[in-house]
Every structure is written in C-alpha cells, then in structure tokens.
Design brief:
Helix content: 55-70%
CATH architecture: 3-Layer(aba) Sandwich
Radius of gyration: 16 Å
Order of helices and strands: EHEHHHEHEHHEH
Number of strands: 5
Number of helices: 8
Shape: globular
Bound molecules: adenosine monophosphate
Distance between the termini: 9 Å
Length: about 190
C-alpha cells in the first residue's frame, strides 16, 4: 500500500498517520516530523527549514523534494508507505510521481481528512499549549490555514481526477476516525 494522508493543519494527520501505518504494516513518513527532528539536531537542513516553519510557510520545494526522495529510497519504504504532509504543492506532486515511477510503483490511495477551519484553529491553539510548538501562535496558525487553502487544497482535485481520492470526516475520537479511514480505503478498487 502506497498512500497519502492529506488535510488542513490541525486535522489530526500526524496522529492518524501513526495509527494507520501501524494497522497497515507500512512506515509512516512525515515530512513535518523529519523537519522537526532536523531542527532539534541543528543540522544544516534543520537550520534552513526552521525559518520557514516558524513563519508557517512551506519549506522550498527543492529542499523538501530532495529529502523525500532520499527517505523513500530507504529499504523500509520498499514495500509501501504512508506519506503524511507530502506532497503539499503541485511541483511536489510531480516529484512524487517521478520518485514512484523510478521505483516502478504507483499510488494506491489519497485520504483527505476533512474538518471545519474554526474547529481546527481551536484544536491547534489547545495543542500549542501542550506541545509548545514555535509555529503555533494564533497568527501563524491562521496563516498556515491560508497557505493550505491556496497551495495544497488544489491538489485534492488532481488526485480526485486520478480516481485516488477518498474524503473522510476528521472530527471525532482517534479510533473512530481511523476506522472511518480503513473503511474508506476498502471503497477504492484496491
Ligand atoms: P506538519 O507537521 O506536517 O504540519 O509540518 C510542519 C511544517 O513543516 C510545515 O508548516 C512546513 O513549514 C514544513 N513542511 C512539512 N511538510 C512540508 C512539505 N511537504 N512542503 C513544504 N514544507 C513542509
């Protein structure tokens, strides 16, 4: 299974990615987590990414694409993966297509978690108090929703046209949402 988990910031992608990857027996690859690990370790990549992340902007495509290409070439991603937070721009869609083609693979499913923006902003404000993420001030949170709407939401159409998209209500208990996603995956021809 090679799948994407999409949806606006705060929709619970990270949490669901881990649960679903575990259930499906594939690695969850989260670009946000990889960036955060690099920021923490103060690597060159981390230092570059941090200024974009702190402002709620996307890290440039060439940086993100190179990182994902490397990660998907690792052995554990050979049999499948769940991508969380990638692709987020049209050029990233093209790069992912190229990476998959290079490995002779294709995508099986794109799951989009759907939730109301106001619910998400509330959720993220609460999370920021628990996690202390530096990209979680109210202004940055609202900006991230705008960036998602402008840059990433249009990708859903692309995947819908390919017949890969399933939209799932992302509001509810963690286990409830996971079950919805697993049920929705069965509706694709796979
Ligand atoms: P996330 O944890 O997925 O919300 O990602 C946190 C931050 O990492 C985002 O706000 C971006 O600054 C950066 N990031 C993660 N994934 C990508 C991506 N595919 N393209 C560009 N920036 C990304």
């Amino acid at each position: 299974m090679r799948m994407l988990l999409m949806g606006p910031p705060g929709a619970g992608k990270g949490t669901q990615a881990k649960v679903l990857a575990d259930r499906l027996g594939i690695p969850a690859v989260s670009t946000g987590d990889i960036f955060r690990a690099n920021v923490k370790d103060e690597t060159e990549l981390g230092l570059e990414a941090k200024r974009y992340m702190d402002a709620g902007n996307y890290v440039p495509d060439e940086v993100t694409n190179a990182m994902v290409r490397d990660r998907l070439s690792e052995a554990d991603a050979g049999e499948g993966f769940l991508l969380d937070g990638y692709p987020r721009t049209l050029p990233q869609v093209g790069t992912l297509d190229d990476i998959l083609a290079d490995h002779g693979h294709q995508l099986n499913a794109v799951v989009a978690l759907v939730a109301d923006t106001d619910v998400l902003v509330d959720r993220m404000l609460r999370r920021s108090k628990v996690d202390g993420r530096s990209d979680d001030s109210e202004e940055v949170i609202r900006h991230r929703q705008e960036v998602y709407a402008a840059e990433t939401k249009p990708l859903l159409r692309v995947y819908a046209q390919r017949g890969l998209l399933v939209e799932v209500d992302g509001v509810g208990e963690i286990a409830e949402v996971s079950e919805r996603v697993l049920a929705a995956l069965k509706t694709l021809d796979g």
